[in-house]
Amino acid sequence: MKIAYFDCFSGVGGDMIIASLLDAGLSFNRLKAFLNKVIPDNISITLKYSAVDKCGIRAGRFLVAGVDVDKHLSFEQLNRLIKRAPISDIVKISSLKILTRLGRAEATIHIGRRFSQISADKNPYNLRVSASHRGVDKVHLHELGSVDTLIDVVGSVFGLQELGIEKVYVSAFPLTHGTIKTAHGDYPLPAPATLEMLKGFRLFHSPIQKELVTPTGAAILSTLADCGLRNANCGIGSAGLMPAMQVSAIGYGAGQIELPNQPNVLRVIVGDLILDTKDTVWALETNIDDTTPQVMGYLSDKLFSAGALDVMIIPAQMKKSRPGWLLQVLSEPDEVTRLEAIIFSETPTFGIRKYPVERTKLAREIVRVKTRYGIIRVKVGRLNGSAAVEACRLQPTMVGSNSLPLKLPHHKVITATPEYEDCKKAAQKHNVPLREVILHTTKTRNNETTK
User: Fold this and answer.
1) Are 124 and 164 found together in one domain?
2) Do 381 and 350 fall within a single domain?
3) Of the residues 31, 241, 439, 450, which has the fewest C-beta atoms closer than 10 A?
């Protein structure tokens, strides 16, 4: 899996994210061509990219200039521009999620949590202001509702897609102090909306009295890295440490301000994630002989929905010659209490046995294989090391990648299994047997990796 780790030791802004990706290999010409699809013809801007020196570090600087760079756009206008742009669904969805997070944070600060939650949850990609809150849209994004914000958001998402990044990791964020001037007066640093978006992420104290983390930068990274907040081992939102990876590129993106004793740059480290092949989980067990099959089926679904790694219901001969079941559940350590509560509430059992279990796992990766039935996902398992995406002829997970991870021959592929749901849909669409799709996908994958 190709990942990007953003090292925010000196803060982050939207322009710094784009500059770091450009420095790491993103084509500036392709970025400009993409942004021209999003920015309306009646808006006059100029995009510039250059190399600068920041305390002895050569870094890229990305600038948006022109008479319309600060032109105010309402939240609804920003949404509409993204939705109507002839760009990929991946960029649209991720960009709208970032704007939603930004709008929700601003609404929470200026209006109150209740309104912001109702607005966002009912219509997550199109926050609207009710008649009783006229003028809220202006308050939301007074400083942030601009062409510059739009470019930072969609440009960052496009850059990650273009580089083939499948997962984003982020370091701790610097917690500065002081004040910043806004349309509402002097606000404390970090800006209230910025701090709202960084809930759950690790912060560290910085003595610098300047805004190092901008709301747009916080919105982009907290949204794209948010999927890892529940995983305490991944380094997102918890320790903030860089995961084990094989580095392929490093980029430095310069910020606009000058700092006296440190480089004002954002560092992005790109490479292949090296997955840990051993972990410890908990096994929960109980014997049940006084409930119905319907309840057991419902219980299984509920346990999976609550985060169970696996649920097994094994027929068993119980005391007094009664047929029953042995329920076995595998759980992450921090989910044990919740899963136990579900078992107790849904079954008549009086006790649950539990014990730690060490697992040895193949490092897994999902690759996309182009077949006569369309793109089919294949789960690849490797022994001893990286689950890097395989040969260059396999389709990358994010369309548009212009670079692929290194193929490591000493990490032997042990198994490769086509995804059932993809094969099922292909079989139904083309009216062919399911096993034909599975066999063809497996054969195609094997042929591609041996060419």
Assistant:
1) yes
2) no
3) 450
Task: Indicate the burial class of 33 (C-beta count within 10 angstroms; 0-12, 13-18, 19 or more).
Answer: exposed
Question: What domain range includes position 178?
Answer: 2-273
- Which of 400, 105, 396 minimizes the C-alpha distance to 223? 105
Q: What is the CATH number of the domain that holds 287?
A: 3.30.70.1380
Same-domain pairing of 384 and 355: no
Per-residue pLDDT of the chain in tens (451 residues, 90 and over written 9): 789 999 999 999 999 999 999 999 999 999 999 999 999 888 889 999 999 999 999 999 999 988 777 777 877 888 889 999 999 988 999 999 999 888 888 888 767 654 444 343 334 334 343 333 333 344 444 455 688 899 999 999 999 999 999 889 999 999 887 777 766 677 788 888 899 999 888 888 888 888 899 999 999 999 998 543 333 333 333 346 788 788 999 999 999 999 988 999 999 999 988 766 678 899 999 999 999 999 999 999 999 999 999 999 999 998 888 999 999 999 999 899 999 999 999 999 999 999 999 988 887 778 889 999 999 999 988 775 443 333 322 333 332 222 223 333 445 677 889 999 999 999 999 999 999 999 999 999 888 765 5
Tokens representing 8 are 């925010």
Helix (H) or strand (E) holding 188: strand 185-188
Same domain, 43 and 178: yes
Q: From 221, 240, 273, give the residue that closes a domain.
A: 273
Cβ proximity of 52 and 16 under 8 Å: no
- Do residues 76 and 62 share a domain? yes
CA distance 440 to 435: 8
Q: What is the pTM of this model?
A: 0.61
Identify whether the C-beta of residue 221 lies closer than 8 Å to the C-beta of residue 203.
Answer: no
Instruction: Specify the number of domains making up the chain.
Output: 3
Helix axis angle for 89-110 and 147-162, nearest 10°, is 140
Instruction: Check: CB of residue 404 under 8 Å from CB of residue 396.
Output: yes
Q: Is 127 exposed, middle or buried (0-12, 13-18, 19+ CB in 10 A)?
A: buried
How many DSSP H helices and E strands does the chain contain?
Answer: 13, 17
Rg (CA), the chain: 25
Distances (CA, A) of 386 to 40, 250, 359, 405: 43, 19, 17, 10
Q: Are residues 248 and 312 in the same domain?
A: no
